[in-house]
Write a structure and sequence with these properties.
Length: about 200
Amino acid sequence: MKIPVMGVLMVVGMRAWAAGGGAVEKHKVPVCLSASVRPPAIYSARPIISDIFEQVRVQIEWQPDGSDCRKSSGAISISLSDNTPQATIPGALAYSQPFEGTHIVVFFDRVSRMVEPAKVPSLLAHVLVHEITHVLEGCDSHSDRGVMKAHWDARDYVHMSPGHLTFTAEDVVLIDRGLDGWESRYFPSTENASRTLPGMPPAAT
């Protein structure tokens, strides 16, 4: 049975409202860009990523360039590859380690070849939203539509630029549950009341 997205958001919002003593709390997720490849497209992609996560009351906190990306810091670390071997997860645009909980690798050379230059920031943003969501959920599950779809088709690529692909109601539930474990693992004493991830092989997009 499909769950109405607004219904799920209301339930999640009420949980956050009650936990915050009346105010709806946003989950703050620190994200850092590791040194190496840093194309201009990544900076254009950031506002799109932040906007998409606003749908589920997740606030992406972009760390200053050169900041500490060690696993112990709790920040999700993004690396971009510009010379990806063909044998490395063929067909994938990125991979994450959702059960490890901190690291994402984007095959930027493949991303940049998928669409015309003007659309690269939008595609890159959706790839990163997809992988960050895997990390926050702590699992490698996919949806039948939207940003967490396993394989985007031509119609999905068209919708990325004028607007954004969105989360399904099931995605919202998984994100909310996963954040509990992720936050409790990395920020047990902070205002974020939450969440833990065990370890397994990577999820590829």
